Amino acid sequence: MPVCSYLKLQKSEKNMANRCKLNNIMRRAMIKFKQTINILILLALIFICGCVSSNDQRTAQQKIKDDIHSYPGKKTMKETGRTDKQYLLPIYSALQNKQYNSAINQAEKLRTIHPGDEDIFYLQGIAYFEKTEFSKALHYFEKTTSMNSNRGDAFFYKAMVLTKLNKPKIALDAINTAINNKNAALQLVKQEQLRFKGTWTVGGRRAALFFMRAVINKSLGHLNNALSDINTAISLSPYQSSSHFETRGDINFLKTEYSLAYTDFKKAVELDPEKGKVWLVMGAIDLYRGSYDRAITNFNKAVKINPERYNGALANSAIALWIKGEKNSALEALGGAIKKKPNAHMYYHLAYFHHLMGNRAQALANFQKAEQLKSNILKLRSQFLKRPPKASPTYTFYQQEYKTAQLYLKEGNPVAAGNDINRSPSLKITDLNYEPIPLPVNTAFGVICRFKPDIPKMGNNIIPVTFYFKVYRGSKVVFTSKHYTVNARNNKVAKWVQHMNPFSKKRAYIFKAFVKYKNISDNKSITLTIK
Question: Would residue 313 count as lying in a domain?
Answer without folding.
Answer: no
